[in-house]
Amino acid sequence: MQQVIDADEQRALEEVAAKVAKERYAPYDEEWDRSRMAFSKQERRYLGELGFLGIALPEQYGGGGAPLQHALGVIEALAKECRPAAFQVFEANTGPAQVVARFGTEQQRERFLPPIISGDATLAVAISEPDAGSAATDMKTKATVSGDSLVLNGSKRWISNGGEADYYLVYARMNDEPGSKGIGAVLVEADRDGVSFGQREKLMGFRGIPSADILFDDVVVPADNLVVGPGRFRELFGAFSIERLGNATMSLAIGQAALDRTKHYVQEREQFGKPLVEFQSVQMNLADMVLQVEAARLLIRRAAANVGDELPDSLEVSLAKCTANEMAKRVTDLAMQLHGGNGYTEEYGLERLHRDAHGWALAGGTPSMQRIRIVSELLGRSFDQRR
């Protein structure tokens, strides 16, 4: 069932988020990028106190029960100034907590959702492996039933918030069925015996968002931690489409931030005795930036509009994510060009936007994989990339 959008409530949330972003986080964004400092638990709890971490999660567990668009608006407002802060809202509202909220048991929802919503704990998703990235169904991590427990063995790669999160929703192979048929998802606490983490990755962007490998060596968890059993992979990835909308919104924010800075710069900066915006070539580039940003925004809005009790339409999500991811890369590149030499400095922050734009395009399914998904949904058939 589609949820009713309260435009005034959404606008008020976005205004608060924009104020917090500019006053509390923007002054530290460059410093956090240089130091690669992880977002502090204290600041995460502050976002929880504002109600930002549970906007689109059920009210009975402390959430706001609001439409997904409300959460996406807050993510955009924060991400224009500070992606590490926006990531906290992104992960809580569009990440694996949505899987728990939609498919988890009542016991799981009561145990895991309240601390996520308050900011006392975080839940990260663990899907990719060293040899299973875009080909997610090639994963080898196993969760074997042993009495009333599950025993996990394997490793995960490129896990955002890896080493920092308190809980992980781990996708694992639970029987010998081929491909996706044997895959399910289980909740694993970070402090379980046998859970260990690799060194934090030194990424081009995402510098305030930790990423690390996770290793599982005979990790025993109660069977009650099983969220989705084998044979329901399509449902799991249907919920993952919500995360892809969060991803697309992060890209949208990056593109909008680059556009906003460029719009101001070309009117203030003069060359040959007149503002840059007086040159037709600058006007053409600026127009292209607006076209691309607004196209991405409309595709995201369309895909998010139907999310309520039902999961989003996979085709609409892939169109939105692919468009937004590629828009952010192109628009930040154009912004750097229009800023000339200033665009290549750290002072103007455009190189930081450009680096982060590439990260969000890689996360959650690359544009190439989204194109394959688009054709698959369009034609109503799947394509076996292994043949």
TrEMBL record:
EC top class, as a word: oxidoreductase
EC number: 1.3.8.1
GO biological process, one term: fatty acid beta-oxidation using acyl-CoA dehydrogenase
Matches recorded under Gene3D superfamilies: Acyl-CoA dehydrogenase/oxidase, N-terminal domain, Butyryl-CoA Dehydrogenase, subunit A, domain 2, Butyryl-CoA Dehydrogenase, subunit A, domain 3
Chain ranges of the Acyl-CoA dehydrogenase/oxidase C-terminal domain: 238-377
GO molecular function terms noted in the UniProt entry: flavin adenine dinucleotide binding; short-chain fatty acyl-CoA dehydrogenase activity
Taxonomy, superkingdom: Bacteria
Named cofactor requirement(s): FAD
Keywords (A to Z) from UniProt: FAD, Flavoprotein, Oxidoreductase
Domain Acyl-CoA oxidase/dehydrogenase middle per the UniProt entry, residue ranges: 124-219
Domain Acyl-CoA dehydrogenase/oxidase N-terminal, residue spans: 8-120
Family: Belongs to the acyl-CoA dehydrogenase family.
Identification of the protein by name: Butyryl-CoA dehydrogenase
Protein source organism: Haloactinomyces albus
